[in-house]
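Cont'd.
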Amino acid sequence: MNDIGHPLRLLYIEDNQDDVILGLRTLTKNGFQIEATVAHNQAEFEKAVAETQFDIVLSDYYLPDLNGLTALEYLREKQKSPPPFILVTGTGNEAIASQAISMGADDYVVKEYLKQQLPKAVKNALSRVQRDQERQQLLRLLRQSEERYRTLVESALDGIIVVQNNHIVFANPAFLRLVCFSSLQELSAQDYDALITQEETGKSDQRYDRPYHSLKCADNTKKWIEIVTTDFTWQGQQAKLVQVRDVTRRRLAEEQAQRMNETLRQMNASLQASLLRLEQTKNELAKALEFNDRMLQNISHELRTPLTHIKGYTEILLEGIMGEISDEQREALQIINEKADTLNRQINQILTLQTLNAEDFELRPIDLELLVRSVIQDFQPTAQKHNITFQLHIAEDDILYCSGDEERLQESLNNIIDNAIKFSPEGGIVTVQLRSVESDFLWLTISDQGIGVPTDQLERIFDRFYQVDSSMSRRFRGFGVGLALAKQIIEGHGGRIWAESTNIPGEGTAIQIMLPALKEVR
Amino acid sequence: MANEKILIIDDDPLVIRLAELIIKNINLQPLSALKGEDGIEVAIKERPALIILDLMMPEMNGWETLSQIRKTECIQDTPVIILTARVGATGDLIGTQNKPHYEAFLPKPFSMQEMRDKINEILNRAP
Ligand SMILES: [Mg+2]
């Protein structure tokens, strides 16, 4: 009959043994398995209660040193969950019975009807205990479940709030921390829509098209947040569940990245501008150079036009087309014609000097000995006119080849020999010496017996239009552009050219030329 | 082959006079024009055996004149000697890219001999 899984531990507080036997027999007969303890007095009662946790207590009302109500009171004081208590009374004691019930007794049984009433009373009491236990268990489970949810909400890193009628009615600690309020009460006083507002600028999450919101904190600072809102029912009323995530750092990082991008864009723009300016400058420079070249072309053109007339009509006269001319007239006309050619050559040299580019050289192996001999041959008539002789010293066993632009090299030798003749006195000797140095270089020396060049001016004779001094320029023609052009050509071939002079009249000037030798010919 | 006509087009009257003297001297008949347009007219009318053409001329310059000659059917095959003072340091003609065809060029200043040689060469005559 009892479902508690073990014999019913029953405390029987009764000094009358017959009553005890009757009660126990009644219960046994009704199917209860009982393990009974009988207390005949207060001492036994207290001892029994101290030793055993009983499932149920039956108590007589009147004992010599104890009554049922005292026992009930004692049990309820001593035990946290006191066992069900059934009072056994005599007839006419209903007042006591009802007092017992009000003190927490489960039931009472009248002695005269013990057989009829006791089993039912015990059974009810046990059911009540079982129901109580089940309810306790349920409550415990409920509490545990609630505890789990509370833990979830309270330890969540995101803020979680419940909003009703534009006021926050619940906030988890994370949200309180975020918004800097110390309690929900303070927070509830705020209007929700003043606290959290949508921002126009930017999306917190492009994937979900989620706009940024801002949160006004208790200290009046503003935080960037991202929210997710769900409608639900809270305590029977419509509410919004709002999840709040602090994205201030992300937003600041984004802003910083944006600023950085902006800075980079600006830097790029100014770089582009600089490049543009550079390009413009380059173009202007190119234009200036082009202009320079064109100017030079124009000047040459302007100079050549009258030369064309001078040369042309001189030749017409020389040819006798305009009539017979005397020998003296012929000589004079020949001088004019020659000088027109000289002038034209000089114009060409100036142009060359301005436009010469070593990259345009047409290099091929050149026998320098042959070139030197042919240049000297060309100058023989001029030299003879001034009674000047050439002395040629060529190292016969040396290989005298270099790699060069023949036309250009010839031009530079022409200019140097021309100068040597120009500065030689009547009857002087121009010495030309050619040899190789360790078969690495070809060494050419052209010396005259003129007045020489002051040592401090030696380098300057290769400058354009250099003249030693005005008195010299009166006595001799200037160096013009010939040496400057020779220098440019020799250096364009990877060679060197310099002048040596002792400044002793008669010892003259020596022009020294070094050119890289061509070691493997053919 | 005597009395072949040689047309000289140059804005410089002194050069025209000079060229006429040289051309007459080798028994050819000189024609002349001071402008490109006039030169083309003379050429169409007289059909010279050779045109000597200056480059630097006001209004229609030498290259434009040469283009017109090459486009004008009755004279387009006439050989042309370009005559110019606008040459580079090495005596080469400057800026000849994309220019119409010409047979020879003579840099100014020129010698009589050079002009005679060029004319004879193109007319394929013994000098
Ligand atoms: Mg002209």
